[in-house]
Amino acid sequence: MKVSVKKMKSIAFSLGAVVVLSAAQWSHAATAKEGEAAFMKNGCWQCHGTQGQGGIAGLKLAPNPKPLAYLNAFIRNTVGPMPPYSEKILSAEDLANIHAYLESIPAAPDPKTLPLLQVK
């Protein structure tokens, strides 16, 4: 079976990202409080909303964010409308904290359970 160079580079990059993220997670326990501060400080809220709910320019990130390895790969290598963030701009520790913050955001309640929205 022949594997393309592009495919091998992609696999190598993915494995490297997992190793880097694992090392960052072992050295620091991510916290939602620090993540919220990093989310605000780095301007994530401007496109994604203050609670990751999405906005005009940014996608919905919470609740139930993508896995940390996915976010890391995307944030470091995006070529779309969102600029890539290198580790000089957004450290692995800040990214892990931001992920913890996004994970801490609860889902919105079901509208059927809100008394003010019930028809009488």
Could you walk me through the main structural features you see in this protein, from its secondary elements to its overall organization?
The protein is mostly helical and 120 residues long. It has a single domain (5-107), classed as Cytochrome Bc1 Complex, Chain D, domain 2 (Orthogonal Bundle). It contains five helices and no strands. The chain has helices at 5-27, 32-41, 44-48, 68-77, 92-104. Helix 2 packs across helix 5. The N and C termini lie far apart (66 Å). The model has no long low-confidence stretch (mean pLDDT 85).
Descriptors:
120 residues; mainly alpha; Cytochrome Bc1 Complex, Chain D, domain 2; 5 helices; elongated
CATH class: Mainly Alpha
Mean model confidence by pLDDT? 85
Helix/strand class = mainly alpha
Percent strand: under 5%
Number of strands: 0
Assign the CATH topology.
Answer: Cytochrome Bc1 Complex, Chain D, domain 2
- What pattern of helices and strands is seen along the backbone? HHHHH
**CATH structural architecture:** Orthogonal Bundle
Oligomer: single chain
- What's the main sheet like? none
Number of helices: 5
User: Nearest-angstrom radius of gyration?
Assistant: 17 Å
What is the 3D form?
A: elongated
Count of discrete domains: 1
Separation, N- and C-terminal Cα atoms: 66 Å
**Unreliable runs, pLDDT <50, ≥5 residues?**
none
Please give the share of residues in helix.
Answer: 40-55%
